[in-house]
Write a structure and sequence with these properties.
It is a single chain. A hairpin with a 6-residue loop joins strand 3 and strand 4. The chain is mainly beta. Helix content is about 10%, strand content about 15%. It folds into two domains: about 70 residues, Sandwich (Immunoglobulin-like), CATH 2.60.40; about 40 residues, no CATH class. It contains two helices and four strands. The protein has a four-stranded antiparallel beta sheet with strand order 2-1-3-4, with no helix packed on it. The model has no long low-confidence stretch (mean pLDDT about 80).
């Protein structure tokens, strides 16, 4: 873990304090006045600076603040390129032929014969 610069600004008085985090990321500001509004800023090379507004402290309070630093300059992109046709209209696994005898044997009771004509067959074989 890299060390980070940690800055605490008192919004009421505009005074600031700065410390450097330890190797595990820990930091501490001792003797802060209660009821003050603070802004915490954490910065480290290679990471985005993070700012967080803290709610006022009570007298004697000790607070743990977790800060997650995000990598700087990381972006994601999805590139889609077309290399060929979207469908495989000439592929035998999507085609088939129905003969007149086969069509006559299909019970029409509740069946859509047009949809059946477009139904794929197994690798170019006709339905028997």
């Amino acid at each position: 873990m890299r060390v980070a610069g940690v800055r605490l600004e008192d919004a009421d008085t505009a005074s600031t304090r700065e410390v450097t985090s330890g190797p595990a990321g820990q930091f501490e500001f001792a003797g802060l006045p209660p009821a003050s509004r603070f802004t915490l800023q954490v910065a480290s090379d290679g990471f985005r600076t993070t700012r967080r507004t803290l709610s006022p402290l009570t007298a004697g309070e000790r607070r743990l603040v977790d800060v997650l630093l995000e990598p700087q300059g990381v972006s994601e992109a999805v590139v889609v390129t077309a290399n060929g046709p979207l469908g495989r209209s000439l592929s035998p696994e999507l085609g088939g032929n129905l003969g007149r005898e086969q069509l006559d044997r299909v019970p029409a009771n509740g069946h859509d014969l047009v949809a059946l004509a477009y139904r794929p067959t197994a690798a170019g074989r006709t339905l028997n």
